[in-house]
């Protein structure tokens, strides 16, 4: 996948160099643009950000269409639609993405999230301030008593993923790999909201908690959670860690995940100026987490979150577009 991204970056640079030779009519030939809006909040927000800027700034007839990772990539490959998919996580779909790029119908436009997707084990910042050793896996292993499980006295509690999530298997294997199964219970929170609620409740009460979580999410925007360090990803043993039948899991960590925007080649070819904007989109995780936290607090839609981002963080998005386009978007807001 790194080769794919590097190759795509070269293609993007080449296409951007061609912009100087375009006439205004060619550059503005945007037309109808379809954008996949995935069902989770960060993806919906990013889709709406692109829609607003393409509509207000470039005069595109931009519209959102329902999307999901594999069906969207397949449709882009076979039909050339939708034109854009603003939040694709490649770790679980590397072959699908590689085939789409190899067939010449799809390009990787940009790494949408500057820091990539986050997955890992977390503790609250206030616990690390009091016990700095809890910032590392060795410190966690040595101090299960700091995360007491009221239902199993003498053990620490680790909030794992709900049943049915792949990460529940991974967490169980990692607990065994780090020799923690005798000292910690793996507590199933029952659901995604249950896991988020447990972290929120503990944080607001300044209580101890040790949990799996992921981002970008509202939880990581609202609460200062520290990802446990000292766990390194090993691609050679990772497949075993993800398997229920792994007999000898080795120490590992969730891999970093590049989060990508995919674009149909037909869109790149017909709307080079708009594609230049899309290929420039890159949002810091801290910012998207904060936007998602605002969205949750205000029960806002993906469009509302996008408008909040555009109004609150002009220092970020105005770098993605020429000044005259930024002025049009601001006027539209």
From TrEMBL:
Keywords in alphabetical order: Signal
Domain of life: Bacteria
Gene Ontology cellular-component annotations: ATP-binding cassette (ABC) transporter complex
Any one GO molecular function term: transmembrane transporter activity
Pfam families in the cross-refs: OpuAC
Signal peptide: 1-27
ABC-type glycine betaine transport system substrate-binding domain span: 32-311
Name of the protein described by the UniProt record: ABC transporter substrate-binding protein
Taxon lineage: Bacteria, Pseudomonadati, Pseudomonadota, Alphaproteobacteria, Rhodospirillales
